[in-house]
Write a structure and sequence with these properties.
- The chain is α/β, with parallel strands linked by helices.
- It folds into two domains: 203 residues, Isopropylmalate Dehydrogenase (3-Layer(aba) Sandwich); 125 residues, Isopropylmalate Dehydrogenase (3-Layer(aba) Sandwich).
- Helix content is 41%, strand content 19%.
- A hairpin with a 4-residue loop joins strand 6 and strand 7.
- Helix 1 packs parallel to helix 12, helix 6 packs across helix 7 and helix 11 crosses helix 12.
- The radius of gyration is 20 Å and the shape is globular.
- The protein starts with a strand and ends with a helix.
- The relative contact order is 0.16.
- Pathway: Amino-acid biosynthesis; L-leucine biosynthesis; L-leucine from 3-methyl-2-oxobutanoate: step 3/4.
- Its cofactor is Mg(2+); Mn(2+).
């Protein structure tokens, strides 16, 4: 296979972890006889500093022409002013919108070798395997907003259409068919009108198109509690933009470290005219450890596995990367964030351990 992959290192530790992921992609290409054409582009704070735009036109053009996109991280103290007219996060929101990336996938599956690192009891966490599917381009983050009464009153609309709910629920249901056959839809239908629409559309889509998938509706506040006491009970979880943002961050702590968790942002399938997917670790830019060699590259390396499977349709290659990460961690390879006071390895050494196993 010949594939074009756009690299967006971004800010903070982004360039370091993307560099290690590139080594993994090159190793996969060598082992499986592929050609990956890699090109690097600006996004976030680095792009603001260079050209004054968090998503420069050249970056967007390259991403649209790519088969998949790998992103490091954006943001940092230098650009933290929430009142600034131009902010790094705007680049992320724009690229999702421009590429039609309406679904964010976050797998939550603690590694057996690190289950003790979770802040929850081992018997609660062990065996957890949840795939969150978060709607990414609608809802309150994209609703009409503003100020009234001389700035003393603020508002932000939450808006969802039937079509938006249908497409995210169909994707989540298809994913559930390939896993445990169970779908949990999270809403706030007892209070919010958009959630009432969400629930009714979800019920209809599952009944009409996915009778083999078991559907459960859970209110968002209840789900926040369930994640801490019975996370093993969930298979695929689908929810809106705001609720998904909060719940996935909560669930990200089940494995014990943000440095282990990848994510994918996907749009329509290529067969339906969709564009490339975007793959990024869920942790931030961690500017406090940038350049120190302490960053954990494993989440970004696991992003390459998602990129290979969900972006390029290469499941065997993805499994090879995931297996290498699991073997490395199982053999005791630990970066500082998961070392629990024991000896730790550097960013590059952690990647070396994975490369040895591919």
């Amino acid at each position: 296979m010949h594939a074009r992959i756009a690299l967006l290192p971004g800010d903070g530790i982004g360039p370091e972890i993307v560099a290690e992921a590139v080594r993994v992609l090159q190793a996969v290409a060598d082992r499986f006889s592929h050609t990956f054409e890699l090109s690097e582009h600006l996004i976030g704070g680095a792009a603001i500093d260079a050209v004054g735009d968090p998503l420069p036109p050249d970056t967007l053009k390259a991403c649209k022409q790519a088969d998949a996109i790998l992103l490091g991280a954006v943001g940092g103290p230098k650009w933290d002013d929430p009142n600034a007219a131009v902010r790094p996060e705007q680049g992320l929101l724009r690229i999702r919108k421009e590429l039609g990336l309406f679904a964010n996938l976050r797998p939550i599956k603690p590694l057996d070798a690190l289950v003790d690192a979770s802040p929850l009891k081992t018997d609660i966490v062990r065996g957890t395997d949840i795939l969150f599917v978060r709607e990414l381009t609608g809802g309150v983050y994209f609703g009409d907003s503003g100020r009234r009464d001389d700035g003393k009153t603020a508002y932000q609309e939450m808006v969802y259409s039937e079509a938006e709910v249908e497409r995210i629920v169909r994707l989540a249901a298809r994913l559930a068919q390939g896993r445990g056959g169970r779908l949990t839809s999270v809403d706030k239908a007892n209070v919010l009108e958009p959630s009432r629409l969400w629930r009714s559309v979800t019920t209809r889509v599952l009944a009409d198109e996915f009778p083999d998938v078991t559907l459960e509706h859970v209110l968002v506040d209840a789900m926040a509690m369930h994640l801490l006491v019975r996370p093993r009970d969930f298979d695929v979880v689908v929810t809106g933009n705001l609720f998904g943002d909060i719940l996935t961050d909560e669930a990200s702590m089940l494995p014990g470290s943000l440095g282990l968790l990848p994510s994918a942002s996907l749009g329509a399938p290529k067969s339906e005219g969709g564009g490339p997917g975007l793959f990024e670790p869920i942790h931030g830019s961690a500017p406090d450890i940038a350049g120190t060699g302490k960053a954990n590259p494993l989440a970004t390396i696991l992003c390459t596995a998602m990129l290979l499977r969900d972006g390029l349709g290469l499941p065997d290659e993805a499994a090879a990367v995931e297996g290498a990460v699991h073997d490395a961690v199982g053999s005791g390879v630990r970066t500082a964030d998961i070392a629990a006071g024991a000896a730790s390895v550097t960013t590059t050494e952690a990647a070396d351990a994975v490369l040895e196993r591919i």
